[in-house]
Specification:
The complex is a heterodimer of chains A (81) and B (394). Chain A is mainly alpha-helical. Chain A is built from 4 helices and no strands. A 7-stranded mixed sheet of chain B has the order 4-10-9-8-7-5-6, sandwiched between helices. Chain B has a 4-stranded mixed sheet with strand order 1-2-3-12. In chain B, strands 11-14-13 form a 3-stranded antiparallel sheet. In chain B, helix 3 runs parallel beside helix 10. Chain B is globular. Classes of the chains: A mainly alpha (81), B alpha/beta (394).
Chain lengths: 81, 394
């Protein structure tokens, strides 16, 4: 993993969050996606769909099971790019 | 910490529906009187939420065949198809299903859920890919989990989105199984099947169409959306259930590829479970014959759902599908609104399904009506009148 791909993944997550969840204002990368950021499974799925379009990649379904925080997601995505 | 803590969000969702009887989820049905009548909370109601699309659950010939098999062959097989549970009638039904499609092979499973579990987990193994519609039924998601394939979702009913994902796979697309449904049971919408077929052919991928809700309903012989779209020679697998139009319980997978038979040796949900009871198989064989010759039933069903869709739209209800079909899902803004409509209809003597997250796509709150060929014009009039009454009282 390079800093570049991680930065790219973070950028894609920020852009996707803004589009998929416009009401979601602040991004705290260490927040738990479900309990702290308050996303439900449908919102997470929509978010990932947006990120997939942004980065032009396919995220396998089981990747989401390994991810707790937005930072986890960014790191995992950076390995896919 | 308790093992049960994880269920609390579900318990909260259930509690949000209140304690008033009868419960809106898992509603106690005290008696069933016919394909369209039952008893709930001590009152006779019109059943409009059963997925009994052709109304064959009380077909005299289906019942007679099931009764005869129950008496002559016993109440259960007590064994797997791999051991002592493979009777002549199980094999005959598989032969009849394959013949109906004009295809090489068919396999019968003990439930529709297991048909997806058993087919997807066996067909797609380690190093393969499953590309599934984001709004797929739970049995497709669970079949994917049971497989060791890499599972990728594509946007609901979006062949272009699938195209991009198959493009990313490159040559590996030849090891990708695409899964779509003939009719999505939550919103009642259907896929642009020909466009999906074109995409899968262009990439050399495989296509499975789950016709659980569309078998019996679409196509001249009721084989489903694949038949009505003229695509029977261009899909690889059709999956179906016995528990909707075929009025029993069980499931099947049918394919033009004779190698489907090899799945019997590898599909754990097929191997490690008891085979369907003799009565189930006997009833299903008769129901299958009725489905294949059921143009009259399909005509009545179509008449019913065309009328209901037109009336619901006129009343200002927002439906999950623009194209009329046997499932009419009314989309409501809030859970309370959906619950109020569900209760209002029940008070008017009509049973429908309340569908709420996490069971629904996009977190929608739905009041789902499903129609049957056994509904009369007067039954549809009654449903429409109750819906009209609810708009007045809203």
């Amino acid at each position: 993993m390079t800093t570049d791909t991680l930065a790219l993944a973070r950028q894609a997550i920020s852009a996707a969050l803004t589009r998929a969840l416009p009401e979601h204002r602040e991004i705290d990368w260490s927040q738990s996606l479900t309990s702290e950021a308050g996303l439900d499974s449908v919102q997470i799925m929509n978010l990932v769909m947006e990120i997939e379009d942004e980065l032009d990649l396919s995220v396998p379904v089981d990747v989401l099971a390994e991810v707790n925080t937005l930072n986890d997601l960014a790191v995992r995505l950076s390995k896919l790019t | 910490m308790s093992l049960f803590d994880k269920f609390q969000p579900l318990a909260d969702a259930q509690a949000s529906l209140g304690t008033r009887s009868p419960a809106a989820i898992a509603t106690p049905i005290e008696a069933v009187l016919s394909p369209t009548r039952g008893v709930i909370d001590g009152r006779e109601v019109l059943l409009a939420g059963t997925n009994n699309y052709l109304g064959l659950t009380y077909d005299p010939e289906v019942i007679a065949a099931a009764s005869e098999a129950l008496s002559s062959l016993g109440s259960g097989t007590t064994g797997s198809r791999m051991a002592n549970g493979s009777y002549q009638a199980h094999r005959a039904l598989e032969h009849e299903l394959a013949a109906a499609f004009g295809w090489a092979a068919a396999m019968v499973f003990s439930t529709g859920y297991q048909a997806n579990l058993g087919t997807l987990s066996a067909l797609a193994g380690k190093g393969d890919y499953l590309l599934i519609d984001a709004d797929s039924h739970a049995s497709i998601y669970d079949g994917a989990r049971l497989s060791h394939a890499e599972t990728i979702r594509f946007r609901h009913n979006d062949p272009d989105n699938l195209d991009r994902r198959l493009t990313r796979l490159g040559a590996d697309a030849s090891r990708a199984l695409v899964v779509v449904e003939g009719l999505y049971s939550m919103l009642g919408d259907r896929p642009p099947l020909e466009a999906f077929v074109e995409v899968k052919e262009r990439h050399g991928a495989w296509l499975l169409v789950d016709e659980a809700h569309s078998f019996g309903v679409f196509g001249d012989r009721g084989l489903g959306l694949t038949e009505s779209s003229g695509l029977l020679d261009r899909v690889d697998f059709v999956l179906g259930t016995f528990s909707k139009s075929l009025a029993g319980i069980g499931g099947f997978c049918v394919s033009p590829h004779p190698q489907l038979q090899l799945m019997r040796l590898a599909s754990r949900p097929y191997i490690f479970t008891a085979s369907p009871s003799p009565a189930t198989i006997a009833g299903t064989r008769v129901a299958l014959r009725r489905v294949l010759q059921g143009q009259d039933l399909r005509a009545q069903l179509q008449r019913n759902f065309t009328r209901l869709y037109a009336a619901a739209a006129e009343l200002g209800y927002r439906l999950g599908s623009d194209v009329p079909g046997p499932v009419a899902a009314i989309i409501l803004g809030e859970r309370e609104e959906a619950l109020a409509l569900w209760r209002g209809l029940l008070e008017a003597g009509i049973y429908a399904n309340l569908m709420i997250p996490p069971a629904t796509p996009s977190g929608l709150n739905l009041l789902r009506l499903s129609l049957s060929a056994a509904h009369s014009d007067a039954d549809v009039d009654r449903i429409v009148a109750a819906l009209a009454e609810m708009t007045v009282s809203a």
